[in-house]
Amino acid sequence: MKTEFREENQNYVMAFEGRLDTPSSRQVEREMQVLYDCEGHDIILDCTNLEYITSSGMRLFLDLLKVAKSKGSKCTLLGLNDMIYEVFDEVGFINLFDVRKTL
Questions:
Q1: In sequence order, what are the residues at sequence separation of 6 or more whose Cβ sits closer than 8 angstroms to the Cβ of residue 54?
Q2: In 10 A of CB 81, how many CB atoms?
Q3: Dihedral of the alpha carbons of 22, 47, 63, 24, in degrees to the nearest 10
Q4: What's the rounded Cα separation, in Å, for the pair 69 and 99?
Q5: How far apart are CA 84 and CA 30, in angstroms?
Q6: How far apart are CA 92 and CA 103, in angstroms?
Q7: CA dihedral (78, 33, 9, 62) positive or negative
Q8: Which helix (H) or strand (E) holds 26?
């Protein structure tokens, strides 16, 4: 699992590549800590190259969403593949996040 953080147009962007599963979620959680200081920045979770996500990875996204909302920031999921979109839809995440195919 690889992540890449960047600032882009006043947004915090975290790109994910590979499989966000239980073994990789601890490392990804540490790498996502920079996003928690999001006051004044919206967050984009770029999932274009995310192949798979387990419930532990979904929990990371949900925890971040709660923090972002409490700080007045928006959290966008970008580029979900069909399989991940379906899972997010089934558990109601599609209604919680701003979900886009592209920016």
A1: 20, 21, 22, 25
A2: 14
A3: 20
A4: 15
A5: 22
A6: 22
A7: positive
A8: helix 22-32
Local structure of 49: helix, strand or coil: strand
> Across-strand partners of 98?
76
Q: Looking at residue 54, what is its pLDDT? A: 96
C-alpha dihedral (44, 74, 35, 71), degrees to nearest 10: 170
Segment 10-61, tens digit of pLDDT:
999 999 999 999 999 999 999 999 999 988 999 999 999 999 999 999 999 9
CA–CA gap between residue 87 and residue 39 (Å, rounded): 29
Burial class (CB in 10 A: 0-12, 13-18, 19+), 51: middle
Q: What is the pLDDT of residue 102?
A: 84
Tokens of 90: 């089934």
What is the arrangement of strands in the sheet containing 2-8, beginning at the earlier edge strand? 2-8, 11-20, 42-53, 75-78, 98-100
